[in-house]
Write a structure and sequence with these properties.
about 85% helix, ABC transporter involved in vitamin B12 uptake, BtuC, about 300 residues, globular, mainly alpha
């Protein structure tokens, strides 16, 4: 029995190592690492500002934006199969514009005293979802793979997507670096920041727009339905393990990298959707951290 078990393990390891030599697997790891860095750093501010639901709102807004983009492409050029280049570019740009506008709208609603934050996000979430479903139904699906749109298709990303993601991530990280002090100030004490003359609304809008950018470039990894996990889990896990903001900012990207790397490995071994396994790995890490903290506290109380 033990010999069969060892043989089975050896076969799995050899299969995984052979798959890791494939270019499409390597591209998957590269784009996952790039996007996880940006989403993990943004997750720190999103979680600490208690606007975690914004990821869900923007993700469903992106779904509506992509549906609008595919619909516009079919109106302009006919079937998507006949215009593969435009079918890949135009929907992404239209979705990007829709998500940026949606992020501005969500942030404006969040800052309004007439509507609660969760209700504001729910409005945009339902608007994007309803709009996307309506456009999909009237156009009979556009001829695109809806499953890859909803759950991600990281294993079929191309070099162009990696380059675009790297450029967008570099620009976004540069912006975060330039406004880092103001972001920290507005995150921890917005009232004091306003008193100090900082226009907090500017940085709130910038944070929302950057979150929208993450949503658009992260669709190939986890799809529309699971994007919010990338904007929440890294910071949520790191805040449970650290005692200072500096430690949280350093640890969150590390947690993000571990999550996507082991998530992709799990998807390869199990032949499962990468988006789902990435999120499950993140949730597993969160569960382990909670259990470890509980065990440590029990032992500490017994001393």
């Amino acid at each position: 029995m033990s010999t069969q078990w060892k043989s089975w393990n050896t076969m799995i390891i050899l299969d995984v190592l052979s798959l890791l030599e494939e270019p499409f697997i390597q591209r998957a790891f590269i784009i996952a690492v790039i996007i996880s860095l940006l989403s993990s750093i943004l997750s720190v501010f999103i979680v600490l500002k208690k606007i975690s639901l914004i990821g869900d709102g923007l993700a469903h807004t992106a779904f509506g934006g992509l549906a609008l983009g595919y619909y516009a492409t079919t109106l302009l050029f006919g079937t998507l199969a006949s215009f593969n280049y435009y079918a890949g570019i135009i929907p992404q740009w239209i979705a990007g514009v829709v998500v940026v506008l949606g992020s501005i709208g969500i942030n404006k609603a969040l800052r309004s005293t007439k509507i609660s934050g969760d209700a504001a996000v729910a409005v945009f979430l339902q608007l994007g979802l309803a709009g996307g479903i309506t456009l999909l139904s009237v156009s009979h699906g556009f001829g695109v793979n809806l499953e890859s749109l909803l759950f991600g298709s990281i294993l079929i990303v191309n070099a162009g997507q990696i380059i675009v993601s790297a450029i967008v991530t570099a620009i976004s990280l540069a912006i975060i670096f330039l406004i880092f002090k103001e972001l920290v100030y507005t995150t921890f004490d917005e009232t004091q920041a306003r008193a100090a003359g900082i226009k907090t609304w500017v940085f709130d809008y910038l944070l929302s727009i950057l979150a929208g950018v993450v949503v658009i470039i992260a669709i190939p990894i986890v799809g529309v339905l699971l994007i919010s996990a990338l904007l929440v889990l890294p910071a949520l896990i790191s805040t449970q393990m650290t005692k200072s903001f500096r430690q949280t900012v350093i640890l969150a990207p590390i947690i993000g990298l571990i999550t996507v790397v082991f998530g992709i490995l799990a998807s390869v071994i199990l032949d499962a959707a990468p988006g789902g396994t990435i999120v499950l790995v993140g949730l597993a890490i969160l569960g382990i951290v909670f259990i470890a903290k509980r065990v440590i506290s029990v032992f500490a109380s017994q001393k």
